[in-house]
């Protein structure tokens, strides 16, 4: 009987250890050939761009560069300290996007800025982003460069902001005094909708600035589970969101899985240590941000 009990205990420990290791396993998404990604390039946008398809001197619509045509080497893999690093030049608006869709996951990466900037952002803050729950075709947004998605903004001084891409929508845990968007990452604030027609259109600022100094790597994490997501910068939660969805003909549809895009948006940026792991539940330390779930 003693041996049986010990055998049962050993089996339970083995199962729990196996389950833990499975939960904690990370998958690296970067290699020297970008084998887990595809790409899309739109246009070289001019400062007077108005969201319409560009036309030539005869008024004929200009086609975007399109899928998997790496014009001007916008996306390239380099090596830094013997580690693979993705360089995004930013010269042409577009993205690399995962071949695979993801749902219920923890994404983690490091990002830093390069020196170059391109039109139409030569006089603006450096900008890129992580677009998640990406579905459909590229080029349906204002800049005609990306898929319908939610955005974890990566911009100088604004890493962790939220933007909606195309007709996506979401609710942000935020306090908004006199119309100034100022989200607070705690359980005492209401969730407010961000979407066209709600009175809070397009974007919401992160609660605090936790990004690294210029020239240094910033660690960015994205946790998605069900309709909920969190934006985390250098270990600090800066954005709490739920009820991820998109609006079509006035009707809301759930948006809780999809591909991941990394943007090319007028500024040189570098990405490394891009990795992802599956989640079986929302991690315990983050449940407090959503109240009772």
From TrEMBL:
Key words, A-Z: Signal
InterPro entries: AL/BT2_dom (IPR010496)
Domain 3-keto-alpha-glucoside-1,2-lyase/3-keto-2-hydroxy-glucal hydratase: 25-277
N-terminal signal peptide: 1-21
Pfam family membership, one: 3keto-disac_hyd
Lineage: superkingdom: Bacteria
Name assigned to this protein: 3-keto-alpha-glucoside-1,2-lyase/3-keto-2-hydroxy-glucal hydratase domain-containing protein
Organism encoding this protein: Flavobacterium arsenatis
């Amino acid at each position: 009987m003693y041996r049986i009990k010990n055998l049962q205990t050993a089996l339970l420990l083995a199962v729990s250890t196996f389950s833990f290791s499975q939960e904690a396993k990370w998958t690296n998404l970067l290699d020297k050939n970008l084998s887990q990604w595809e790409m899309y390039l739109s246009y070289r946008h001019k400062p007077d761009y108005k969201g319409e398809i560009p036309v030539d001197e005869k008024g004929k619509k200009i086609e975007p560069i399109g899928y998997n045509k790496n014009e001007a080497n916008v996306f390239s893999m380099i090596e830094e300290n013997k580690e693979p690093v993705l360089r995004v030049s930013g010269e042409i608006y577009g993205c690399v996007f995962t071949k695979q869709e993801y749902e219920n996951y923890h994404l983690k990466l490091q990002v830093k800025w390069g020196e170059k900037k391109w039109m139409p952002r030569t006089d603006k803050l450096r900008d890129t982003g992580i677009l998640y729950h990406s579905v459909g075709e590229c080029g349906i947004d204002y800049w005609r460069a990306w898929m319908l998605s939610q955005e974890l903004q990566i911009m100088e001084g604004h890493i962790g902001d939220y933007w909606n891409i195309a007709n996506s929508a979401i609710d942000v845990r935020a306090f908004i005094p006199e119309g100034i968007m100022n989200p607070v990452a705690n359980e005492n604030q209401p969730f407010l909708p961000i979407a066209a027609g709600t009175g809070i259109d397009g974007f919401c600022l992160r609660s605090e600035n936790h990004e690294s100094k210029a020239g240094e790597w910033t660690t960015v994490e994205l946790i998605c589970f069900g309709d909920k997501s969190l934006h985390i910068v250098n270990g600090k939660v800066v954005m709490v969101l739920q009820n991820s969805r998109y609006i079509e003909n006035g009707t809301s549809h759930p948006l809780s899985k999809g591909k991941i895009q990394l943007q090319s948006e007028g500024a040189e940026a570098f990405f490394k240590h891009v990795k992802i792991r599956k989640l079986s539940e929302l991690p315990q330390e983050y449940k407090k941000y959503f109240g009772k779930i």
